């Protein structure tokens, strides 16, 4: 009986040829599908196939290759935390959590409020001439109101920091006009924080609040890790973060995200769970991928206790929530992938569903 072939990677034509050469030089026979020598690459990418029995050895070789490349780039230390606020209780919750994080990392905090100046576009055309609107005055009223609220928020947070014994945490604030997610992304590019911390409400939110949709829009437009504190999260302190689960799909961005995650949780003594959910029966290839992931984590942080689970299920959200409760997870981490607009509308991402329904903080990475 002929042995089953599996796809070990999907790359551009040039990268597929390099990978094929690398694996074959280490004794693993490879085959390419969708190869297009003339055009260099095809839209769906070139698939690199190997025999299933070679999966574990191939994955180890590929892991060593990636580790060599990754080792050339040092991760930046987490020294700045950006906290977008809208003055709601979830924002207060997130800001207080950010203060505790800042104390742990010796980082500074910038509070950011983005206010939206409404455009009058519903006045009947015949009435425009008879209605005088002083847009400058309207802007200043909105700006001054937002600034007053932000300053109160700032002073309340400083009082919290002093009460908790975090007097040394530096806190600043900034205000700007615009649409929430765009304003957050623009400021993050200038401020260059190591992490963005946001509070969010579940479904049934008001349109003026920083909600799941804004959080996912921010994660779409920036590569900065985004920590979302759900409204239902009960936070006693950052030291309660003992068990973290990373939800893996075994793609090439996983190790970058895991490395960032380990950097973020480095001040804590954690137990790291790696969870993969599949609607297919577990195969040797899936088991090999999980083994490779576990071995990578042990190489990067040898002292971290690692537990890996593969669960067969058709839907992932309920499985994850049940897993969180059963294993007493304190933080969920996952990578958010780029998807087409139509697909987003018809299939809300796992990241967005977790933001709405999770009762523990959710840490999002972007591919």
Descriptive overview:
It comes from Tenuifilum thalassicum. Belongs to the universal stress protein A family. Residues 79-230, 241-365 form the UspA domain. InterPro entries: DUF2007 (IPR018551), Rossmann-like_a/b/a_fold (IPR014729), Universal_stress_UspA (IPR006015), UspA (IPR006016). This is Universal stress protein. With 367 residues, this protein is an alpha/beta fold. It has 3 domains: 5-58; 80-230, HUPs (Rossmann fold), CATH 3.40.50.620; 241-366, 3-Layer(aba) Sandwich (Rossmann fold), CATH 3.40.50.620. It contains 11 helices and 13 strands. The strands form 2 sheets. The protein has a 10-stranded mixed sheet, sandwiched between helices. Strands 1-3-2 form a 3-stranded antiparallel sheet. Strand 4 (80-84), helix 3 (89-105) and strand 5 (108-115) form a beta-alpha-beta unit. Helix 3 (89-105) crosses helix 4 and helix 6 (212-221) runs antiparallel to helix 11. It is elongated and about 75 Å long. The model is unreliable at 37-43, 70-76, 119-123, 125-132, 202-212 and 339-348 (pLDDT under 50).
Short descriptors:
367 residues, alpha/beta, Rossmann fold, 3 domains, 10-stranded mixed beta sheet, 3-stranded antiparallel beta sheet, 11 helices, 13 strands, DUF2007, Rossmann-like_a/b/a_fold, Universal stress protein, UspA
